[in-house]
Amino acid sequence: MKIKPEHYTYIKSAIEALPLDKLLAHKEALKFDDRIKDLDKRFRWDCLYVAIKSSWICDNLYPYMDDTHIDTALRSIVKELELI
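Structure (tokenized):
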């Protein structure tokens, strides 16, 4: 993964601090939106944007990463937190 360890830890901690019941309810609700092509990816990114301000993401991640790198990190975080 291309993400710096401190950024990975920061994102993981922020997502982990979110209420689990609300995250799972949100994921369940997403299943009924026909516009979503990749439910798991949408869920990962929703978790990121709820947990962390987009300005932090732009200032800290995008200078050295693109969306594919961020998604790889998010995939790992969601798996570690057993949100899949």
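The helical segments are 5-16, 20-30, 39-51, 54-60, 67-80. The mean pLDDT is 96.
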